[in-house]
Amino acid sequence: MRVTQQMLFNRYVYNLNTSLTSLMDLNIKAQTQKQINKPSDDPTGMTRILDHRDTIRSLEQYSENISTAKGWLNGSDEALLQVSTILTRAKELATQAATGTVDSDNREQISYELRSLFEQMVGLSNTEFEGNNIYGGQKTQGAAFEEIMWLTTNDDSFASSVDFTVNGSADTTVLVQFLDESGTVEVGGDMNLSNAGVRYSIDGGDSWLSDGYMTFSAGQGTLNLPSSGTSVDFASDTIVKNNDSEDPTNSDGTWLWIRPSVRYLGDDNDPPPDVDQFGTGSGTITASASGSFLNTNVTVRIDNSSAVAMNEDIEYSYSLDGGINWVTGNIAQADTSSNATTLSVANGGILRLASNGSNQLQPGQQFVIRPRTADIELDISSSERVRVNDVGKDIFGGIYMDPDAVTAADGSILTLGSANASRVFQSDGAPNMAVSIQGDDEYSKNLFEVMGNLIAFTETNNQTGVQQALANLSEAQKHIMNSTADVGGRENRLEVGQTILEGLQLNEDTLVSSIEDADVSELMTELAQQQIVYESVLRSTSMIMQLNLGKFI
């Protein structure tokens, strides 16, 4: 074969480029100290590296979530500890006011500090983290609580049977008594509100004002108290008890304390869930739900091929993701109840259906179960989430208007009152109006209501009421400490989660390093060898390229 100069030149260039490429690859590895810099270096190794890097990014996100969660929970922890400290001071003041050795002036002086403590509690209940309210549920923008006026009475029957709305506001407790203007009703006797006169005090009972009056319109009576800045709406046929016109300290009649309280404005997790109906026949069925739905909407679909009665086998499916995927093959077995049936849904949830004009369920008919949700949760691992916020009313209490009342109003603006709102933690059947002698029931945990009553009783020199409020303060503080412990438990979960993440991240970094990182000593040896090879190629090529026939002529 004839070897031409072109062939020699091409071979020289090829060898030079090959040696130079190898040298440059080793040089890049020396610069990065990594043996895999691009997929072609090791396709399998690069795939493994990318998988591990995805895992590391997930771990970094979990770590960032933990850092964010710590911010939320540390803020809540500190706020609750401050509330507990304030409560301790409030108990000290209440203990002083509850003794018989202090007079009305002393109790009035104590009430000034109690109002200041109350304001501080309201401020702490609106604690924010990065502009988000911690205690408003998922309503993180704006205040979770606002100050309002509410009622306390000494009349059990009045409290149990009367709805009210307080209008306006006052800087001090307004004490109200009703009087018989006809002179025919004995002290403590019942009389209709329409026949009652009014006296009230805005200085704790030291003096009484007589400019109060009742007005009536469309079945509603309004108690007007001009000098106080407040008024109260009742039903016009409300019954009250007559007070002693000569002795304002006689408590046989109906007394009202118009005093401070706090309204919760956030979300709740309270059962039961709402149920919406869709499809043919939805108006003839009553649907309700109970149990656990893991804070997610559940859609239930009737799968029978034709209309089915409630006492027959009912085939149904349910979806936890809005109808994308369905759990099929569920059957509610036939029974003897022709007008009601119960369908079991995942995670312990139950859908109850009852006749409301028809006991027939139609094919394709759907029911959407919507549990109330207020939790904000962050993922701290692939299988664990931590709640970072709280439902403020479940900690501090106050007054709460149920969202169902707002829905039932069908767009109308509702004025807060006992007909559409209630005291948090009150026992079943208990009145929405507080009574001056309150037993140790669930209501005692309602911090804002207990503090509101304590302020009212110290401002109006009611020793018995102060003593009851003092006992309730202890219950409220226990509840606050239990809530603090709950927050602390979640903080501990974050600490454990952070430790686990650090271990996992170290393991992933080690695995990536074992695949990706170069052995520096071995790399330096290879680099030196390749440099010698490249220099040899250059030298030999230069020598051969200089040889030609002219040198031998």
TrEMBL record:
Matching InterPro entries: Flagell_FlgL, Flagellin, Flagellin_C, Flagellin_N
This protein's GO CC annotations: bacterial-type flagellum hook
Gene3D superfamilies the record matches:
f41 fragment of flagellin, N-terminal domain (1.20.1330.10)
Superkingdom, taxonomy of origin: Bacteria
* Flagellin C-terminal domain: residues covered: 472-546
Q: Which family does it belong to?
A: Belongs to the bacterial flagellin family.
Among SUPFAM superfamilies, the record links this protein to: Phase 1 flagellin
Query: Domain Flagellin N-terminal: where?
Result: 11-140
Keyword Signal appears in the UniProt entry = no
Q: Which keywords annotate this record?
A: Bacterial flagellum, Cell projection, Cilium, Flagellum
Q: Which GO terms describe its molecular function?
A: structural molecule activity
Please give the name of this protein: Flagellar hook-associated protein 3
Would you kindly state one Gene Ontology biological process term found in this protein's UniProt entry?
A: bacterial-type flagellum-dependent cell motility
Compartment(s) of residence? Bacterial flagellum
Its main subcellular localisation, reduced to a broad class, is other
Name its species.
Answer: Pseudodesulfovibrio piezophilus (strain DSM 21447 / JCM 15486 / C1TLV30)
Q: Which NCBIfam families match?
A: flagell_flgL
